[in-house]
Write a structure and sequence with these properties.
By secondary structure, the chain is mainly beta.
Length: 588
């Protein structure tokens, strides 16, 4: 029996804590068409099971179904057999998360794209025992420090890399013996601190102290603790250093932001890891801010506004230095956010081999943006993707200034992403006066630079029918095993398509030697198996970024030298392809 399913609203902070893709074939016609001959389903179900690390059912776990662009989400609880069910879901894409005290979901690789699910999917979610850090906080005289907040901050993930985003660390207070216990920690390397950081507007008597890091240190000499599902004792001798205040005012607020709330984030960068030193939330109408318990150091300060109407803004990061005194009088100028809008077009094929294939549903298409990575990023409260309306029109709102790449996720086996372009020419009346009309900017290849408050429009994302698939495995000799981080790449063989980033594909080879590449434009490809280094892109999204042009050229030259040519016909399913292992082990 399925139990306790509820509607709930995720506050932006909670949403962050629960925390992101043509060649013209004969007979193809580009047009805006209905996404399916039948109306899209209005509601449906998603079912599944939560299991533990041994594959056994996990009862009484919470499961969240989160739409990447909607604020209303759903929650259910697993039954005695670990099963869950969401019914009455709107047609959309969903991210599913499981949670239970002391347990975590396996970490996803930083470059891996999220696993989206659709109506009628059956999903298995796995929970593993999280790590534990426990210990005692005592004063310089050895007395227990009672009710001081202790936090464990991730500085390196399970693969030894700084995390891409900054999360909020939920504090655990010490008891009357000075003992604390932080559980449910994902694998990685942590620093542990006590006191400081008045993050949510209230708390304990130690909020305005500077944090004391284990064993009894400032941040620069803090011990690093490795956690991998085990329990580690970390004692802290509390220093009681005086923390400092950082305060100022907010400007640039418009009438549209009168109902907006604000958050102010203070970031510290240490060895490429961004630490959230403090965060403060201000109610609507506020125009001042204060952060307390800030230790000496160099920081970046950023203010963001957000409102139920979707109107938001952000300030440029302000660098500050705290050295033995409060820092006051800072002015953060909040500027409006930008947007990208356009249309999804479907180009249907008239080829016989592509007849009666399922078309994409607009409700199951996700237009996503990826901002060029910066050394530090404050926690962000805005979705960076959008879903088309039934007309195919889409808009991605509340984008911070910067350089963006666009990608598309969709679910239709025989369709592929043909192009992402922006019409940059003049309108027809202007063109009649001598202006050049209908110029196109290839956003898939070049990306787009968005200024504060700018609205990029006239973007067309074209999906075309006729996609092929390419599945196979390595031809392993007796005793050979699949090396880690081995990828199979497909790159366009035609010289005229060498710069078409949408014809570059990558798939990691599984431990069983199997690989799969889907939604491929028909055409001729060079195939290459290669071990990816830490500096090389290991996902299609990153491989297609404007900054990776040299990497794509190098991979294509290596593939040409290997002379492994694959030709894919429209709507062809190539299965059981045997990739020679000699071509896959050419790089150490």
């Amino acid at each position: 029996m399925f139990t306790r399913q509820a509607h709930f609203k995720i506050h932006p902070v909670a949403f962050l804590a629960i925390s992101w893709m043509f060649i013209c074939s004969p007979g193809a016609t580009a047009q805006n068409i209905s996404p399916d001959k039948k109306p899209e389903p209005i509601t449906g179900i998603i079912t599944g099971q939560v299991v533990n690390e041994n594959g056994q059912p996990f009862p009484n776990a919470l499961v969240y179904a989160v739409s990447p662009v909607a604020s209303m989400q759903r929650m259910a609880t697993t039954d005695s057999g670990g099963s869950f069910k969401f019914d009455g879901l709107d047609s959309a894409l969903y991210l599913l998360f499981a949670a239970a005290p002391g347990y975590v979901m396996p970490a996803r690789a930083q470059e891996a794209e999220p696993d989206y699910h659709r109506l009628n999917d059956s999903v298995t979610l796995r929970l593993t025992k999280g790590g534990v850090i426990t210990g005692t906080v005592v004063s310089a005289s050895g007395e227990p420090v009672v009710q001081v907040a202790v936090r464990a901050t991730l500085v390196l993930d399970a693969n030894g890399r700084p995390p891409k985003s900054v999360g909020f660390q939920l504090p655990r207070a010490t008891d009357d013996r000075g003992i604390y216990r932080i559980y449910g920690l994902p694998p990685g390397t942590y620093v542990v601190s006590a006191g400081g950081r008045n993050s949510f507007g209230g708390g304990d008597a130690y909020d305005q102290d500077a944090p004391t890091y284990a064993p009894s240190s400032t941040r620069d000499t803090a011990a690093q603790i490795s956690i991998n599902g085990d329990e580690t004792n970390v004692d802290i001798k509390y220093r009681g250093d005086t923390g400092h205040a950082v305060s100022g005012s907010l400007t640039g607020l418009s009438d549209a932001s009168s109902n907006a709330s604000f958050n102010i984030s203070l970031m510290q960068i240490d060895n490429a890891a961004a630490l959230l030193a403090a965060v403060s939330f201000a109610p609507p109408g506020a125009n001042t801010f204060s952060l307390y318990g800030v230790a000496d150091g160099d920081y970046e300060l950023t203010a963001q506004s957000f409102s139920p109407s979707g109107v938001g803004g952000i300030s440029e990061p302000r660098r500050i230095s705290v050295k033995g005194a409060d820092v006051t009088g800072i002015v953060l100028n909040i500027k409006p956010l930008g947007s990208i809008s356009g249309q999804v077009a479907l180009a249907k094929s008239e080829l016989a081999e592509c007849k009666n294939k399922r078309q994409p549903l607009f409700s199951e298409i996700l237009i996503a943006t990826r901002r060029k990575e910066l050394p530090s990023e404050p926690p962000r409260f805005y979705p960076s993707q959008g879903v088309p309306e039934q007309s195919g029109a889409f808009q991605i709102r509340s984008l911070t200034p910067g350089q963006y790449s666009l990608s598309t996720r969709f679910f239709a086996k025989y369709w592929f992403l043909k192009s992402i372009v922006q019409q940059t020419g003049a309108t027809a009346p202007a063109a009649a006066k001598g202006a050049v009309a209908n110029n196109q900017n290839d956003l898939a290849r070049n990306g787009v630079t968005l200024k504060s408050g700018e609205n990029i429009s006239r973007v067309t994302v074209t999906l075309a029918e006729g996609a092929a698939s390419f599945h196979g495995s390595l031809k392993l000799e007796t005793g050979q095993t699949v090396p880690p981080k081995l990828f199979v790449y497909l790159m366009p063989a035609e010289k005229e398509s060498a710069e078409d980033v949408l014809r570059f594909f990558a798939s990691e080879v599984g431990s069983d030697g199997v690989f799969a590449l889907n939604n491929l434009p028909p055409g001729r490809y060079w195939a290459l198996g290669q071990i990816s280094s830490n500096n090389e892109p290991s996902s299609e999204m990153k491989l297609r970024l404007p900054a990776e042009a040299d990497v794509r050229a190098e991979l294509r030259r290596a593939a040409e030298a290997g002379k492994l040519l694959v030709e894919l016909k429209p709507c062809q399913n190539m299965i059981d392809y045997q990739l020679p292992v000699s071509l896959a082990l050419g790089k150490n």
